[in-house]
Amino acid sequence: MDATDLAEGSGKVVSVLGIDVAIFRVDGRFFAIDNKCLHRGGPLGEGELRGRTVVCPWHGWKYDVATGSLEVIPTLKVSMYKVVVEGPEVFIEIPLVKQVEVEGETIEQRR
Ligand code: FES
């Protein structure tokens, strides 16, 4: 993605390796989180951005885009992705292995 595709103080949804990622630009920095709200899957990349906080467009849950934390329960987080800016280009790194919890145990699963 070209850095000029995302205006300061805004967000959008991009698809990376088939995964919908919400990317935001705040104070000149880029932040990428999972696009799916923890409540009912609302598209966070389409939410209103207030500083570092994005408001889910469906029912108003709020997340810090720099940490992925839900405002009211900060230990609940959406996945975050590393963003690398090289010149005018912005890259989002998607790990090939993800951690999932199965019956109380954390296991690694290939995407
Ligand atoms: S789906 Fe996001 S607040 Fe309900």
Secondary-structure map:
Blueprint (H helix, E strand, L loop, with lengths): L9 E7 L2 E8 L2 E6 L13 E3 L2 E3 L6 E3 L15 E7 L2 E5 L3 E6 L2 E6 L1
Antiparallel strand pairs: 1-2, 2-3, 3-7, 4-5, 5-6, 7-8, 9-10
Description:
The chain has 111 residues and is mainly β. It has one domain: Rieske [2Fe-2S] iron-sulphur domain (Rieske Iron-sulfur Protein). 0% of the residues lie in helices and 49% in strands. The protein has no helices and ten strands. It has strands at residues 10-16, 19-26, 29-34, 48-50, 53-55, 62-64, 80-86, 89-93, 97-102, 105-110. The strands form three sheets. The protein has a five-stranded antiparallel β-sheet with strand order 1-2-3-7-8, with no helix packed on it. A hairpin with a 2-residue loop joins strand 4 and strand 5. The chain is globular and about 45 Å long. The chain starts with 9 loop residues before the first strand and ends with a strand. 20% of the residues are buried. The structure holds FE2/S2 (inorganic) cluster. Residues 37, 39-42, 56, 58-61 line the site of FE2/S2 (inorganic) cluster (FES).
Question: Top keywords for this entry?
Answer:
five-stranded antiparallel β-sheet, Rieske Iron-sulfur Protein, 111 residues, mainly beta, three-stranded antiparallel β-sheet, 49% strand, binds FE2/S2 (inorganic) cluster
